[in-house]
Amino acid sequence: MAQGHDDPNRGDARPLAHKLGWMAAIWLMSVGVIGVVAYVIRWWINA
Amino acid sequence: MFDGFDALLLARIQFAFTVSFHFIFPAFSIGLASYLAVLEGLWLKTNNNVYLDLFKYWRKIFAIAFAMGVVSGIVMSYQFGTNWSVFSDRTGPILGPPMAYEVLTAFFLEAGFLGVMLFGMDKVGRKLHFTATLMVAIGTFISAFWILSVNSWMQTPTGYEIAANGQFVPAGSWLTIIFNPSFPYRLVHTVMAAYLTTAFVVGAVGAWHLLKDKADLRARRMFSMAMWMAALVAPLQIFAGDMHGLNTLEYQPAKVMAMEGHYDSHPNGAPLILFGIPNSAEKRVDYAIEIPKASSLILKHDLNAPLAGLDTIPEDEQPPVGIVFWSFRIMVSIGFAMLGIGVFSLIARARGKLFDSTWLHRAAIVMGPSGFIAVIAGWVTTEVGRQPYTVYGLLTTADSVSPLAAPAVGASLLAFVITYFIMFGAGTAYILKLMNKPATGHEEAAASGPLRTAGITPASADSTRRGQSGTMAEEGA
After folding, report:
1. Does residue B26 sit in helix, strand or coil?
2. Which pLDDT does position B200 carry in this prediction?
3. Which residue in A1, A7, A27 is closest to B113 by CB distance?
């Protein structure tokens, strides 16, 4: 992982609303990716 | 190819194989998630970048272990449908909801916040990132909570009634089902086992790098933390295991009889058989090395307390003694070896030799994988000890299996064996490769990053490390 990607100072410098927005966005993307995988497996089993 | 085999035996081998593989990863990730939370919490509290460096080092390893745990876990759920459909149908109304809660937890806490933990440091800031790490750690614990509740209900079923169609259905409060008699003991014993497993892996990695460079600050810190865990948690785990054993004696006495190798009842105090070779044909333990009356002392706290043996259990309700007897001894031996390492580390620490004792470091490396062996041995003890039942005393394993032909089960078993060894072999090899690299500081990483064409020239790695990460004297504290 690149250092810039992991720099906590960059995160701290953002406004709270941006931080919360990023938190929600990454969380949703993570859950969404697994949701898609689960849906594909379900579709494959039922096919 | 599998025509001569029994479908039931193949289904059992398949589940045993896949669950043994699977259990390795959560046993590691449950402890590692908490370790990551501790590391990040300490970094936030102390501002010591050694903790941040260690956090980043172990986070990558956690992500791989977590992914392999998820993948191998999905296979387990499918087997409920493919190989154990009768079991699933009969127990679904009881076991379905807690397993669904486990999936929801894994989805929305572990996997969701794992994304933030891996990719969000520069997006959400320190405190929200720490919150995400805590959510992942709490998520792994809650997952373990539900899965162990399900398993414990299979061992000590309560709060159910059997409907006209043969299904187990809830009767009364769900709390009676969730908090069934063996659950609190199994939860504590298994979660502590996961913490110890992780501690010994972390300790082995720290020791490995200390053997190469005794001045490695990050190796010192991870080794010191792991040895504290070994010294403090190993005795607690032995105590918890003893309590779990007493609970098992109360609810599943046949399992304890098999663990102890007690084919015969002992009306005047039962011996503790340390080692021996169970001979189920002759109903005795050959070449037994035993301590007279010690088993009664441990299990009943009375030297002369009578203990029933397997001669009081009908033949067709007895678990296989050999496997349970040996797996139990492997688990207990490793537990005491872990305690030994903990004591060894305390002595070395008291003498100021924690980071210099080559023998301690070598021993810690040897003990690195011991937690995995112990958790699998413990799992074998409790699962094989429950035989011949899936739901103890109520539903036999033979009555739980799907009406499948042996070749169908055998083919999928073969596919699992090949796939698992390739996939998880590659994953494990990659984890070992990562562990072989020392945990580098962010300043070393920056030094190997993009060239700076303007701005302040970074200080040398040595001077930065001393300034930001504490001195060698502090590390020894």
Report:
1. helix
2. 96
3. A27
What is the DSSP code string of B343-387?
Answer: HHHHHHHHTT-TTT-HHHHHHHHHTTTHHHHHHHHHHHHHHHTTT
Q: What is the pLDDT of residues B54-91, one digit of tens each?
A: 999 999 999 999 888 888 887 888 888 888 999 999 99
Look at phi and psi of residue B19 and say left if phi exceeds 0, alpha if psi is from -120 to 50, else beta: alpha
**pLDDT bracket for residue A42 (50, 70, 90):** confident
Q: What is the mean pLDDT of residues A8-30?
A: 88
* Cα angle: B170, vertex B172, B173; to 5 degrees: 95
Pairwise CA distance, residues A47 & B86, whole Å = 23
With beta carbons less than 8 A apart as the criterion, state whether B122 and A11 touch: yes
| Cα dist from B21 to B99, B102, B368, B476, whole Å | 20, 19, 17, 38
Reference B228, options B379, B42, B471; nearest CA is: B42
Q: Do B126 and A12 touch (CB under 8 A)?
A: yes
Nearest CA-CA distance, residue A7 and chain B, Å: 5
Max CA distance (Å), chain B: 85
Tell the residue number behind the tokens 């933390």, with chain if given: B225
Domain residue spans of chain B:
193-396
The Cα B271–Cα B303 span in angstroms is: 9
Q: How confident is the model at residue B330 (pLDDT cuts 50, 70, 90)?
A: very high
Report the C-alpha gap between B466 and B471 in whole angstroms.
6
Residue B323: which of B383, B374, B270 has the closest Cα?
Answer: B383
Both tokens of residue B254? 């046949």
Please report, for residues B14, B21, B340, B369, B438, the alpha-carbon distance to residue B372 in angstroms, rounded to integers and kept in the order given.
Answer: 19, 10, 17, 6, 23
B123 vs A contacts (CB less than 8 Å) = 10-11, 14, 19, 22-23, 26
Distance CA A44, CA B10 (A): 25
Number of C-beta neighbours around residue B419 at 10 A: 12
Distance CA A25, CA B115 (A): 10
B340: which 2 tokens? 């030994």
Measured distance CA(B28)–CA(B22) in Å, rounded:
10
Whether A12 contacts B89, CB under 8 Å: no
Q: Is the predicted pLDDT of residue B463 greater than 60, yes or no?
A: no
